[in-house]
User: What shape does this take?
Amino acid sequence: MAGKSADATSTPPTPEAQLRGFIAKMDSKDQALFRAVRSAVRRRLPTANELVYDYPGNLVISYTPTELGKEGILSLAGRPGDLRLYFGNGPRLPDPKKLLMGSAGMVRYVPVESARRLANPHIEALIAGAIARSGVPLATKGRGAVVIKKDGASQRPRGKPKK
Assistant: This one.
């Protein structure tokens, strides 16, 4: 049609494409780690929704049975040179090896240097505990959706932290 631009008929990017774009703003080493850990968490929680929050300098994915972040079971938080796995109900999780860090009221975290860390039996026990203590059960079938919770269009590129 005359007068219509190509942009008017183009399809908006999918949430998965938007998430990939957010990850692409990270340094290459951080990208690789974030993708690997995301895949490992996704395999463990295939029916959870991935709620994506793209903040300046920080990318967070909350894994939740609903579209409410407060019901998150696990969350990944990545910033330059630092990836953390957060556990919902963290303060109430049994942690005999004292792996959990932080003092927030609802969550605790472990630093993640590689996706293999999630296969550690003590980390796996923490993950199982977080799932068991979730206030809302995960679906038994299907695949969770990627849900962009904050518009990343206005966000700054991720790079080395400013000194």
Q: What stands out?
A: The helical segments are 6-9, 15-24, 28-44, 121-132.
